């Protein structure tokens, strides 16, 4: 069965199916929804890691400090090297893994949070170089959020509307 195209041509059944699927994709994959899902997807692995580093409010777990003291090493040329100030690095890491994902999920200071998670991803890659297939995915998500912003389903967009600023 053939459909008539604008201009008088005919469209085959596979072409109609392809067009229908394309239309469905356009309906489902709205940019603002994609941006919200992307923010959430990047937040989850960092949040999960961050929750394991704390025993209470601003109280690092012994495991987190031990990881930065004994296990984690920076794989740089001539290395690996131990982390400098491991307790401080564990604290900074734990804070970043809670604060940046929270900001991303809320869509607040989104580009700032994405930069923070991109920098953390670089450090994670230097610490666990065999994990690059996952790390490159995190980097790609952070870069996409940095480039395209949080979308309209975010506090950044709401604040922009309230203040009358254009939201990119």
Automatic annotation (TrEMBL):
GO terms for cellular component: plasma membrane. InterPro entries: DoxX, DoxX-like_oxidoreductase. Keywords: Cell membrane, Membrane, Transmembrane, Transmembrane helix. The keyword tRNA-binding does not apply. It is a multi-pass membrane protein. It is found in: Cell membrane. Its main location: membrane. Belongs to the DoxX family. PANTHER family: INNER MEMBRANE PROTEIN YPHA-RELATED, OXIDOREDUCTASE CATD-RELATED. This is DoxX family protein. The lineage of its organism: Bacteria, Pseudomonadati, Pseudomonadota, Alphaproteobacteria, Hyphomicrobiales.
